[in-house]
């Protein structure tokens, strides 16, 4: 075993766990899960069968990552983040054949207690504020907040807010990250790192 497993945690036979990953108290990883290298799964984390988790992912306490969720490299899930996989659940109706895929791209941050409704994609280095409810796709480098979540700005890879409007009406606008000096360009309603 090339990963650390607390003695109260359960990893079902068949799960793939990368080197250097740590799985803490009372967590459960199902047999079909694929977890990358150097991840950290906090206390009381559940990982379903049809889940893929990249390298260097941090999942804080009390998060359930259900089937059909994909977390890219470097994703951060704050405490009590909520994922769903059925859009219209009913206890009396089985909808396992209706699971919707949810993708969280590289470097994205999901703040504490936010909810990610199934069937959407969260862009690279996007930031979902604590308590927000993401109901639609979130663009790369965007900062969203509220219920339902709405874009309120742009954010750098480092996690600092960028001084850019929500869109540029087609003209090219550039901003620098205050911490790293990296430059980002806004064209229309998309931001890219230069």
Produce a short descriptive summary.
By secondary structure, the chain is mainly beta.
**Contiguous helical run count:** 0
For the biggest β-sheet, the strand order reads 1-4-7-10-13-16-19-21-22-23
Arithmetic mean of pLDDT: 97
Total DSSP E strands: 26
Class inferred from helices and paired strands? mainly beta
The gross shape turns out to be globular
Radius of gyration: 18 Å
Uncertain segments are: none
- Taking the alpha carbons of the first and last residues, their distance comes to 41 Å
Major β-sheet profile: 10 strands, mixed
Can you walk through the features of this model?
The protein has 194 residues and is mostly beta strands. The chain contains no helices and 26 strands. It has strands spanning 4-5, 10-11, 16-17, 22-23, 28-29, 34-35, 40-41, 46-47, 51-53, 58-59, 64-65, 69-71, 76-77, 82-83, 102-104, 109-110, 115-116, 121-122, 127-128, 133-134, 142-145, 150-155, 161-162, 172-176, 183-187, 190-193. It is globular, with a radius of gyration of 18 Å.
